Amino acid sequence: MSAWIYLIIAGFLEIGWAIGLKYTEGWTRLWPSVLTLATMAASFYFLAVAVKEIPIGTSYAIWTGIGAVGTATLGIVLLGEPASMTRVACMALIVAGIVGLKLAG
């Protein structure tokens, strides 16, 4: 499997654990906490595999970018967070940065 695929998987898992944090209620709920920790571990694993072939700066920026945009999007869709034009425009800038980093190598 390509390092880029591993990096995308790591980014999606980051979305999962970031949203999962909301459901742990400060680590007071057992199963959401267990699932969140497992998702964190899996996300770090896939990131570690990806950085064997992709530069760490590129990998980390893309990983956090996927996580940030995905988490903000799910926050809007699932949690009723605000979807202001400024927020959406900033998310678009992050996506543009992710695409730019991928194209740069």
From TrEMBL:
It comes from the Bacteria. It is found in: Cell membrane. Keywords: Cell membrane, Membrane, Transmembrane, Transmembrane helix, Transport. The keyword DNA damage does not apply. Signal peptide: none annotated. InterPro entries: EmrE-like, Small_drug/metabolite_transptr, Small_multidrug_res. SUPFAM superfamilies: Multidrug resistance efflux transporter EmrE. It is a multi-pass membrane protein. The chain crosses the membrane at residues 30-48, 60-79, 85-104. Pfam families: Multi_Drug_Res. One of its GO terms (cellular component) is plasma membrane. GO terms for molecular function: transmembrane transporter activity. One of its GO terms (biological process) is xenobiotic detoxification by transmembrane export across the plasma membrane. Belongs to the drug/metabolite transporter (DMT) superfamily. Small multidrug resistance (SMR) (TC 2.A.7.1) family. Gdx/SugE subfamily. NCBIfam families: PRK11431.1. This is Guanidinium exporter. It comes from Allorhodopirellula solitaria.
